[in-house]
Amino acid sequence: MTHQPPLIAVPPAELDDLRSRLLATRWPAPWPGGGWQAGTDAGELRRLVDYWADGYDWRVHEAAVNALPSRFADIDGTPVHYLRFDGERPGALPIVLTNGWPSTFLELTALARRLAMPSRYGGDAADALTVIVPSLPGFTFSPQRPSLTEPPQTHEIWHQLMRDELGFDRYAAHGGDLGAGITSRLAEAHPDAVVGIHLMAVASPVRYDAASVTPEEQAYLDSVAAWSAAEGGYQHQQSTRPLTLAYGLTDSPAGLLAWMVEKYRAWSDCAGRLPSRFSDDFLLTQASLYWFTGTISTSFRPYYEYAQGLTRRVERVTVPTAVALFPADLTQPPRSWAERVYNVTRYTRMPRGGHFAAHEEPALLARDITEFLRAHR
How far is the CA of 259 from the CAs of 118, 174, 268, in angstroms? Predict the structure, then answer.
């Protein structure tokens, strides 16, 4: 039997270095009042940093990551890491799941298992899907694309992975955040292969007549503008001067954790209480994956490339599209707004959950994807 080498085996010296950096964190002077109003709460961050340094067992989570069904493909000279969860029935429809930021492939594993083995979760084996979960270029175990300007873009890498490497002539796709954009471009470029897409966010039309905007759509646009003004500082920095930020986050694990944890709190359905949705071990494993692979810098590239006009804009998606909106996610586009760009055949407002729905509410998300794809299985 041939044994695959472990996906990750952090040398003891790197674990020692991480612990030393955490223990030597140079903390800023506290502001009056504290809390989360001006950024990550100092008390919460100190608690997590202390646990990361003394108590959190990386080796347990390293073993769990290595136990996942990891594979690598070479796409035009670019290695791509992905997980493959085979459906529990023969001929299961394939689906590619794409995460957003600051997530990793790990966040999608609970969803992937439910989709591939529905009978284990009270579902029907006939609904099983074969699930592919790639790591985005520059995220954890997939190296960044070698060029800022030259193809292929990520959606084309995904198509080559699904069709040429894995041999799937027809497949579905799901994504939220950055993954929603990649999924949309994939469907637009390859409607002959993509049977349907499931999204947690939608692209806005490139052009539209302002006079045609409905009151509901205008309220949505106003809410997006208000969110960008209040919460969009990270996006502006990552879109304009990502490398300036990357030096600090690559050097300081406490800084990296602060940058990530703020988003997990603000964008989830946790009512301001992180532990209600995310265990300390989950948050620290996500941060550790970025830290040990040194990829926080390259994870910023999609923001910069989009802002610089290097990423293809979505014009019109003709394949059947499902939109699932979780109440604590960043935006809540009305159906009519989504229909300006997509062929919307299913539109669902979820009762709970947020930006990280694959981890927060995998059962709700799996059911919506499953029901949408029954017509195509």
Answer: 35, 26, 15
Which of 159, 355, 359, 368 does the annotation list as catalytic? 355
CB atoms inside a 10 Å sphere around CB 266? 18
Q: Is residue 370 part of a domain?
A: yes
Q: Coil, strand, or helix at residue 104?
A: coil
- How many distinct structural domains can be found in the chain? 1
Q: Which two tokens stand for residue 5?
A: 């080498």
| Spatial separation of the C-alpha atoms in residues 131 and 81, rounded to whole Å | 14
Q: Is residue 90 part of a domain?
A: yes
User: Which among 98, 233, 240 is positioned nearest to 159, based on CA atoms?
Assistant: 98
The verdict on residue 300 lying in a domain is no
Three-state DSSP class for residue 103: coil
- Closest by Cα among 287, 265, 262, 267 to 276: 265
Buried b (16+ CB within 10 A) or exposed e, 215-241: eebeebbeebeeeeeeeeebeeebbee
Give the pLDDT confidence score for residue 1 in this predicted structure.
Answer: 35
CB 306 within 8 A of CB 148: no
Question: How far is the C-alpha of 73 from the C-alpha of 78, rounded, in Å?
Answer: 8
pTM for the model = 0.97
Instruction: Give me the catalytic one of 41, 127, 177, 329.
Output: 177
Q: Which pLDDT tens digit goes with each residue over 171-194? A: 999 999 999 999 999 999 999 999
Which domain covers residue 345, as residue numbers?
66-205+313-376
Q: Is 303 part of the annotated catalytic residue set? A: yes
145 is a domain residue: yes
User: Do residues 315 and 339 lie in contact, with contact meaning Cβ atoms separated by under 8 Å?
Assistant: no
Integer Cα distance of 342 and 344 in angstroms = 5
pLDDT digits (tens, 9 = 90+) for 213-272: 999 999 999 999 999 999 999 999 999 999 999 999 999 999 999 999 999 999 999 999
CB 6 within 8 A of CB 141: no
Torsion of CA 274, 278, 284, 287, to 10 degrees: -90
Whether residue 2 is predicted with pLDDT greater than 80 in this model: the reply is: no
Return the CATH number at 71.
3.40.50.1820
